[in-house]
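Ticket 4471: requesting a sanity check on a complex prediction with zinc ion. Repro inputs:
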Amino acid sequence: MSRDIVLTGLRQNNLKDVSLRLPKERLTVFTGVSGSGKSSIVFGTIAVESRRQLNETFGAFIRNRLPRYERPRADRMENLTAAVVVDQKPVGGNARSTVGTMTEIHPMLRVLFSRRGEPSAGPATAYSFNDPQGMCPACDGLGRTMEPDLDRLIDPALSLNEGALRPYPVGGYVWQLYARSGLFDPDKPLRDFTEEERELLLHGGGFKVDRGGYTNTYEGVVVRFTRVHLKGGLNDLDEAVRPLVRQARCPACGGARLNAAALASRIDGLNIADHCAMEVTDLIGLLERLDDPVAEPALASLRRIDAVGLGYLTLDRGTSTLSGGEAQRLKTVRHLGSSLTGMTYVFDEPSAGLHPRDVHRLGELLLELRDKGNTVVVVEHDRDVIMLADHVVDMGPGAGADGGRVVFEGTPGELAASGTLTGRMLRRRKPLKAATRRPRGWLTVAGANAHNLKDVTVRVPLGVLTAVTGVAGSGKSTLATLELAARCPEAVLIDQSAIAASSRSTPATYLDAMDPLRRLFAEAHGVRPGLFSFNSAGACPACKGRGEIKTDLAFMDPVTRVCDVCGGSRYSAEALSYRVHGRTIADVLAMTADEAARVFDLPGVGRLGELGLGYLTLGQPLSTLSGGERQRLKLAHRLHERGGVYVFDEPTTGLHMADVDTLLALLDKLVDAGNTVVVAEHDPDVVKHADWVVDLGPEAGRFGGEVVFEGTPARLARAATHTAKHLAASLP
Ligand code: ADP
Ligand code: ADP
Ligand code: ZN
Ligand code: ZN
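Returned structure tokens:
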């Protein structure tokens, strides 16, 4: 029996007939530049096929209730085992999901409290904020209440006719409910309303008003807003409405989410909410002192959280506030607790967000998973994780159409001695920059105290590149994205949040290049621009502008085939009958950004080349871009905003060491154009390239939040902080 997973003739996405064998029960790392095809093998082929084959083992009744997977494009895929994907997708925005619930430590604490709590509130559900028995009745266990933000809802200086109801345009339906109610003088500014009039406008209701011919029940602005928009939980809030809503701590439970009986039950003077508000490292100490076997399962999980470098988290932290890297490491913790063996675990850059200090502990956990008898497959850029692998597959040589081949297979040692780009990068030890730029001036951020920051005052140099460093949880993101960006009105913040995109978004739509392109075609031929949109008038009637037709038969895998009417172009025959520079609109969307930039003058498209994305086609669906590609596309879109101050949160996530060089060249360009650039980062190559470093620490969470070093990288290399030690060790 073969010990290997055998893959033959892989052609998913950009893969060029790739064949390879992966050793089972070993740690295999996939490397290569962003867009080379790592995810296409690991997620797009191995994980998908393994799930598809697993689903096939069920009867039709169950199979019809499982997600359907299409067979990846490949000749043969053999010896796969059941796959578990641990990725950086945010862990659901559900307001009821906390670090404690997702790691299943909260239920363990509930059992502990039902046994040891004084007085006991009852069985374990009496301590659950997601169960009617335990939840605070005032906020239904959410810990927060929501109310309309009056400052944003009304403008007291204006009258109804002048648009005092900010979200509701004059003349619109909602505006009419008030301005045409006959209850108010529509020309009187709201600040001149009597107390009664104001009360009626905002909170009145319950009576009928005649609106010229028909009657309806009057509701004050706040009453109506609350009924229409705030009836669901926080996460049901419409994006558009969110800015109009103020959240407040629930007055009944003080944010603890639990009812009085649950909160009255204590162990050594602390209730379950107090336990969940403690940092994991502190909670470990507390439970160890309790010395009770009932606490052991919780302790084992808490120690794993600490081991993945997340000891600064609290169990009551909402999962929607976690970064992608934090979320992924928590998912890892959950799987480490499982006793399943013989699985294939698939990770997407598990080191994301981790300081070099903590990477080896993460590596140990991956090896622990392997040693339980699992196959572990990881996409990674971090040298330390690569060097831990039993086997490495290096993809390349380039990105997109220039990638899709295996350029190296073997041990990490052999890779580091090889001539591939990754091999050369692994050998490289970048020196410090010869000379740092001189600041043009200083911006002082005084009294920064968000999250764990301890009232710090930081000077940020203007007109240079600054790195904000420190171990994970020390406060880098908080300082850079919350405190600094909030104090510079012109700051452009580029963080890790996903780009909002519909299934029909493409680089062209995202960069706002689609409208000019449609106008160009329309004006050249004297027709409507809508004809050149596959979302409206120009859509191929057969596939409705999708370009493909999906056949989903009950007992078979879904099959997607290219629409034979439009040949996959998505456009109607009429739209395709018009040409500009000899090309149809579909031809243009099939051009790479580099080609298109040479022929057409379209916003943003030329910048894709500078960001190393010149190989993307204008019409490639955004859903198909790799994480690194998506981030750089976002950069291309945001970089033309003239900010003066650019703040980046861990921009190297998803980037190969060679991609990091491209990114640094781009940051240099920004600085040389007169901008101030601040980057929260842990990658030593970025730190070496900075002109100035603000190092936070000394540790994470409660033990962090202080400035432990400010100065040039050369001085940092001689200092004694965690970042300093790793910087010094990485120099030639
Ligand atoms: P990596 O993981 O190495 O960054 P990916 O495997 O995500 O690279 O992508 C490899 C190439 O295939 C990229 O150029 C990407 O844009 C392209 N690609 C990925 N998914 C799709 C898809 N569904 N359709 C078309 N192209 C795709
Ligand atoms: P870093 O960027 O250095 O990893 P962060 O700024 O993300 O650190 O976190 C610093 C501290 O602030 C940590 O203790 C973290 O748990 C806390 N924190 C960060 N974001 C939030 C949030 N949305 N809600 C509550 N605490 C947070
Ligand atoms: Zn409450
Ligand atoms: Zn079609």
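Notes from triage: The mean pLDDT is 90. Leaving this open until the requester confirms.
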